[in-house]
Amino acid sequence: MAFNFNTTSLSSLQKKLDNFIVDDEAQEADHENQYEYFLGILHDVCKLVQESDGFAPDFEDITLEADRPRSKDSTHWTKRRTTQTPTSLAQINEAPPLTSRLSRFRGDVAVSASSDTPLANTIYEARCEITSNNIPSPIGLHRSPDDALLTLLSAGRYKNCTPTMQCFIPNEEDPFGTRREVFLPLEDLAYNATIDAGRKLVFVGDSERVKSFAWGAPGIGGEEYARMRAVHTLASHEWSGPMGLLSGGRLARGGEGSVGVWNIDALQTRGPKGKTRIGGKFDTEATWRDDPEAIEASAGSVADAVIKLEESDFSIARWHAHPAAPGVMLCTTRPYDTQNYSCLAIDLEHGGKTGARYLGHGGEVEQYYTSEGDPNVFLTACSDGYARLYDVRHPLPVLTLDSGNRTEGCPAAVLVHPDVIPSAYSFAPELPSRAEQKEQIKMWDIRAKSVVYELSTMNNSVVGMEWDAGQNVLFAATECKNMGRMGCTTEYRRAMIPRDQELGYEEKLESPPKQRDGGGDDDEEEEEDSEGEDMEDDDDVEDEEYQGRFWPKNANHAESHFGYLFDAGEHMLCSYAFKEHPDATVLPPYGQATLHSYHWY
Hints:
By secondary structure, the chain is of the alpha+beta class. It has helices at residues 8-21, 24-32, 36-52, 59-80, 118-124, 335-338, 505-508, 520-532, 543-546; strands at residues 103-105, 128-134, 137-143, 150-156, 162-169, 178-183, 192-196, 201-205, 209-216, 224-235, 243-246, 250-254, 258-263, 305-308, 318-321, 328-332, 343-347, 353-358, 365-371, 374-382, 387-391, 399-401, 412-416, 423-428, 440-445, 450-456, 461-468, 473-479, 492-494, 550-552, 572-578. 16% of the residues lie in helices and 30% in strands. The protein has a five-stranded antiparallel β-sheet with strand order 1-26-25-24-23, with no helix packed on it. The protein has a four-stranded antiparallel β-sheet with strand order 2-31-28-27, with no helix packed on it. A hairpin with a 5-residue loop joins β4 and β5 (162-169). The termini are far apart. Residues 1-5, 69-93, 430-437 and 504-545 have low confidence and may be disordered. Residues 66-86, 499-544 are annotated as: Disordered. InterPro entries: WD40/YVTN_repeat-like_dom_sf (IPR015943), WD40_repeat_dom_sf (IPR036322).
């Protein structure tokens, strides 16, 4: 077999795609034929890259050329493919006896975990205690590499206009541990953060500046502060992207065509009281905040160095440290603005050179995730509805997980290796036009290439997920779509309590949890029955029939979908703590959503 491939074949495929995209009649004919022509061309592109991987002398040129047609035409595909019908749920199996009642198992899956892998077996059987913390409207979730701190960025206070940060210091008794809250003195909401575990610093930034806060004295065993202390202010108006740490105690922040770098130990601090101004005065008059007096007026320290990217027009929107190459970042941009779906491995230690290119995304990468269990792979969650597992040595994904059933996005996914067994959690949000879609976290057995079970997100959408490997805890920052900016809930009705829960959950613990059978069609019938009831005119219903609990009218599943009736009714940070012998009674309290609400905005 010959491996002297070059870019000629790719140019020919690109020409075919260009002609196809502008030919409406050809597109309609291909639509009736299940996109056979369009997908065939993309398949040929992938096949060419795969066959030349590691053999062709011009392999870098091939991956560069292959990325162009895939990037250019991914928008066409993601728009067209939403007409595909998602597969229904498989037959539900009887769950293991210690499983959480907020889980729902799939059928006919020969899982990789067994009694010989006790930790993996605990996770694969969903043996978990579920707790929650109410939070402001979540933006992003971040975890330190040593699991010492969990940081949530959010929008809080009046109309969700105040940039807010919650920091959780876990302990053995409580996954959330100690909670610290900071109302950030920034001009805008903060969308980016990174954690320096050694210095016990959290860096958080808006589009203009970066602030750092300390949660304790540096070093192992250092004093834990009673409140977060302001330490640094950095001027980063040229770089508004993600942040990360480099060797030698340096902080890096990505931007368009370049990366700003600061030497942390050489930076001016805000003094023992956290009030010393750094740099000149920052102009706060243009802010949209209702409380401009709360904005700290330091202009901040300028960058100590600037790294120019080899691809000067590449704007870094999201990145993650390479699992095996220090100083290398896996980077993506915002494709809907640039039509660039590239995922690049950029070496910040050697002049911003592009070291590798990873293909296959059809939307914006929402999250990267790596695991110490395998330093050669990384997982991406993409807005096209797929989670993709990549081997860093190859440009194409080794496995693609259909998290969104081809119709939804995938805003969050994490990669874990309990007992060295590759596994993943992913989330797909609601899709109002399809009743069979559920707001739930899917647990994947990567070796079996199948979903093992779903975890309830209590009718909330997941904004971000993190995995604490030290305590075997899955954290999920969730958003209640029925809660407005004033904290009012809308579009709720009285809950229809399943018969096996009418006496209350505690009384039901004396008997084994009742597992429900049924695939996707049965779920749809449940929801149709629920929606068919007259839920508006029910003043004559006695309180004991719904026990003061309410259910969203637009919920993506019926009250009986899981073995425990639960609705969050607010934004929540949830923890799923996996244990060999969990306490089945550890579940969040039912949400406080009300039947009637008022619009204040």
